[in-house]
Amino acid sequence: xxxxxxxxxxxxxxxxxxxxxxxxxxxxxxxxxxxxxxxxxxxxxxxxxxxxxxxxxxxxxxxxxxxxxxxxxxxxxxxxxxxxxxxxxxxxxxxxxxxxxxxxxxxxxxxxxxxxxxxxxxxxxxxxxxxxxxxxxxxxxxxxxxxxxxxxxxxxxxxxxxxxxxxxxxxxxxxxxxxxxxxxxxxxxxxxxxxxxxxxxxxxxxxxxxxxxxxxxxxxxxxxxxxxxxxxxxxxxxxxxxxxxxxxxxxxxxxxxxxxxxxxxxxxxxxxxxxxxxxxxxxxxxxxxxxxxxxxx
Length: 297
What we know:
- The chain is 72% helix and 2% strand.
- The protein is built from 15 helices and 3 strands.
- A 3-stranded antiparallel β-sheet has the order 1-3-2.
- Helix 3 (42-56) packs across helix 5 (75-104), helix 11 (196-213) runs antiparallel to helix 12 (224-243) and helix 13 (255-265) packs antiparallel against helix 15.
- The protein is globular, with a radius of gyration of 23 Å.
């Protein structure tokens, strides 16, 4: 057993912060001395280590608590994920340090590779190696997934613009991607056991709301009745994410604005939505979502 002062000296975490972890029930003491001082055993120190690793990946304490409290949280799997993500972060920082050193030495090197989408593509490749079954389940085959990656690489500049629009910067996008993969890995067992009828419920509900939204494409998308349907779609989507235990996923500050943009400008999305709901449906839904975002900030 270690006292709170010893834990603070060992980890560099202040006593006040350890008190706060106790207060929010993120890390409870293992026991107390006769005088009422907090004591921590090895298991508590392991938990604290997990918390610090999540913090290093810029995951908020509220989300850390939810992840670690999940019945499906796998400590060893989480450590493996931490290792991969920290290596990616280290490599990025090494690249930035190298660029700074070159600049300080007066080297006339114009390099923007430290700010590209390569981390995102690396994360996609890593996901394929670690979760082949999940890839096949969602894409049909490894070949199809590889085609998806190659197509994404061919649209790197376009994807970068969309990432910045949704997250504010490439850095935030890359950090969110790593965090989201980590959350997905922690919840994968739970997701794999979800019944088809439960998934179908949300798919059918989404389809029903979309049909309701585009029932009259001549209407003004700013009308109250249209915006009420949009709000239903947003609420239903949030409910679906919560059911899938993906409500901790970082979708960016402008997720719905990003979705609206894709419905209006992305040829593939437009083609798919118009084929399913009729010509002009994709643009109408996009405009309705865009108005919702602009008026619900």
